[in-house]
Amino acid sequence: MSIRTLGKQSLIYGIGTILTRLVTFLLLPVYTNVFTPEQYGVVSLSYAFTGFVIVFYRYGMDTALMKFYIDAEGDEKKKYFTIIFSTQTATSLIFSGIVFVTASFLSPIFLGGEYKTLMQFVAIILFLDALRELPLLVLRANEKPRQFIFFSLINVLLLMGLNIYLVVFLKMGIEGVLVGNILASSIVLLATMPIIFQNFKIDSVNFNALKVVIKFGLPFLPAALFAMIMELSDRYLLEWLADTAAVGLYSAGNNFGKFGLLIVMGFNMGWTPYFLKKGKDDDAKQTFSQISKYFLGISGFFIVFISLWIDSIVRFKVGGVSFFGEDYWTSTQVVPILLLGYYLFGIYVLQLPGVFITNRTKWVPVFRSIGAMLAVTISILLIPLLGIIGAATAKAIAYFGMAFAIWINNKKYYNIPQSWRGILFPIVYLIIVAVMPLNFTLRIVLSFLYLVLWYLVVAENTDKQKIKSLIA
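Structure (tokenized):
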């Protein structure tokens, strides 16, 4: 796979990932104009609980499927898919059964009130999402990004249509949000059944292979758990240290900030199979360095652009209704901070080849634990002082800690040369944009000036030649 192919597939996977997550963003006009911040806080806590618990449903089997399916040949692929799909089905049924039965006990702790029915809906969503992910991973492993994006688009259209119908027209409130998720996940799972049947072969089940798969996948559970703590603990810490309304306000801003995360996730979907195959080549490190420079430049542009225009976007009105309800306008103050955090997360992801190629994946939970501890500790210190800004700042510092830790570790075992100008330029530019008083004209100038300055300051002669060739 060439750099051009990586870029193409990352773009397609990125669009697919963005489409999947974009539904929450596109529904913000509905949520912020229909729900109070407290009600939207309950919706956000439901999603946060789902994000935490789905890690235990997967327990590293998603990573194991990518690893063994890519490495296998012929019917060996079916063997590993069958083992993982069967195991995931059985354990997901057990886990969802536990959540469903204990919903009355769990809802006051994790949803902030007596929401037994909502917690039971969440149990159903968890089961469906755990299984729905597996055929999509097969599409990634087989390098079929167009089919991947097709199912992502179907999911988005269903979620949007069902949420609008159930919440706005049937006025089902918070329950409408979760029922819409259940229906959409069910339909997408049914639509991917042909992929499941093509790869499912029950007589290929091998318990020795099951042991190998579990042994490989389980070490990724702590890393995934720490990742969820980093990404979702801010919601619960705000609930406990502030109130549910603060969760709703922060979540509205966080959904804009997540554009930075979506860029990184979309890139990583193409990045992981790329560096696993490319890592054996003699010029791998230099190639990884080039990719890092280009990716950080592009992602930096997007986070700067969003930061420049976020206030104008949320206040934009159609028919007298603003994109965000007025109660949520102050949520934009966290967006630049969160975008910076996800940019730093991108630096961490770009360092992962050094860990995988040298077979030091046991370090991944260590890096993640550093981020999780920083996120929780700094949130506890800053939320009482700064509220939602404190939560966003803690997340950014946590991602910096992860990126710094993996960089120090890689210097000894697999040092990938980095362009410090490429790393620092977007950060400095974003800080300048965040502190400057801006009018409409200056926003337009700064949006395009980024590209010009990156070309002049960061790009080397070889980069400029490639850019000119690409444009031509």
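DSSP finds 21 helices and two strands in the chain. Residues 229-472 form one domain.
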